[in-house]
Amino acid sequence: MIWPLLLLVPCFLLPGTGAISFYLRPLGKKCLKEEIHKDVLVTGEYEVSEQPGLTCDLKVTDSIGHILYSKEDARKGKFAFTTDDNDVYEVCFVSKSPSDTLSFTDQLIALDIKHGVEAKNYKDVAETEKLKPLEVELRRLEDLTQSVVKDFSYMKKREEEMRDTNESTSLRVLYFSAFSMFCLVALATWQVFYLRHFFKAKKLIE
């Protein structure tokens, strides 16, 4: 039994963070999808409420089915990965039970997904590079600026691709319309000559 997917609207201008909670029906499935750019750090933290007789599997995949993280009988934990390409990434929770005849209640799932600047641990960066608080904040602002620039570059590239597609489609429609008009004119001319020949053969016209 597969339940409708939950679609997360991607945020292109700001780093992403999505803390949500929802109920997973027994023996059901719920997935979260989000489009994320290339070379972006993604972190997630989840917690699944216990329900006797039920287990919940967690799987994180990309659009072609590559498994980035998988956990059977997931209860509480974290995951992290860096995106390889601009793609739609999916986080799925699947409820399972050895018996489908028992009566269960819904499981509460809490999920906190972050990506981009929000996913980076600047405390560790400060300790590793021995940065002062002001330097850490400047580093965070620098990363945020780079993220915004990448987002705008990505949107510009998409706009160029869409414009090229529109121009190509318009050109093809123009050619098809011209070909259709040529066929109609040729067919109409053939009909005129055919009817003229037919009427002459029947001696209806000279």
TrEMBL record:
Belongs to the EMP24/GP25L family. GO terms for biological process: endoplasmic reticulum to Golgi vesicle-mediated transport; Golgi organization; intracellular protein transport. The keyword Transmembrane applies. Pfam families: EMP24_GP25L (PF01105). Its main location: endoplasmic reticulum. It comes from the Eukaryota. The gene is tmed10l. Residues 29-115 form the GOLD domain. InterPro entries: Emp24-like, GOLD_dom. GO terms for cellular component: COPII-coated ER to Golgi transport vesicle; endoplasmic reticulum; endoplasmic reticulum membrane; endoplasmic reticulum-Golgi intermediate compartment; Golgi apparatus. It comes from Xenopus tropicalis. This is Transmembrane emp24-like trafficking protein 10. Keywords: Endoplasmic reticulum, Membrane, Signal, Transmembrane, Transmembrane helix. It is a single-pass type I membrane protein. Residues 1-19 form the signal peptide. SMART domains: EMP24_GP25L (SM01190). The chain crosses the membrane at residues 173-195. It is found in: Endoplasmic reticulum membrane; Membrane.
